[in-house]
Amino acid sequence: MNYTNDLTTYIVEEYKSNPSTKTVDKLADELGKSPKSIIGKLSREGVYQRAIYTSKTGETPVTKMELVSNIAENLDIEIEDLVGLDKSPKAALKALELATGK
What we know:
Elements: H1 5-17, H2 21-31, H3 35-44, H4 64-75, H5 90-100
Helix pairs in contact: 2-3, 4-5
């Protein structure tokens, strides 16, 4: 699927004015292209922004290993000293991270 310079400029400007999935879908319908094709072109042009995922509570997701790493840092110990802690429930790790925070 080839994009002319004018078409590329149009796609980029439309997306920049409202960077969202809805804009991608609108452009795909309007131009008879697939959303993946539009996203690919926007990516090659360096303007596409991936959606930022959030958890059910609206927070940015944090892995258990990141929590354990933060706890180790808060306690000023090596992460290897906390081997197996990542198997704990996430809520417990969050509470421990908060309690050990400096």
